[in-house]
Amino acid sequence: QDQLVESGGGSVQAGGSLRLSCVASRSTDSTYRMGWFRQAPGREREVVASIWGRGTYTYYADSVKGRFTISQDNDKNTLYLQMNSLKPEDTGSYYCAAAYGRTGYDYWGQGTQVTVSS
Q1: What is the pLDDT of residues 97-111, one digit of tens each?
Q2: In the list 21, 45, 88, 111, which could disulfide-bond 39, CB 3.0-4.6 Å?
Q3: What is the per-residue pLDDT across 44-68, written as a single tens digit (0 to 9) for each?
Q4: Per-residue pLDDT reduced to its tens digit, 8-39
Q5: From its phi and psi, is residue 106 left (phi > 0), alpha (psi between -120 and 50) or beta?
């Protein structure tokens, strides 16, 4: 069992920054992969970024490349998402997830809301 708790969401103007955090109840070093997802109203959930190989490898959706940075601190069992140059289209609920196997994600957080106004 793993519990994931996100924080750091809020309302910002376009061009602003936010840093999301996701604290895990289990060691993040024991995960195979962790990721951030988002879901906007009326849209499907999409992957924003993921990290694996104990932080060695990362993936970013094209829409956030160069603006978002995913990282993890295994000493604090925390996953981060630094979001810069935010755009209104980044608005949505952001979820972190942890995978302990090679396919899919096993545990999800409850989400944190990000709202970007123009």
Answers
A1: 999 999 999 999 999
A2: 45
A3: 999 999 999 988 999 999 999 999 9
A4: 999 999 999 999 999 999 888 889 999 999 99
A5: alpha
The first and second tokens of residue 38, run together, are: 């988002």
49 is written with which tokens? 């970024």
At position 4, the amino acid (one-letter code) is: L
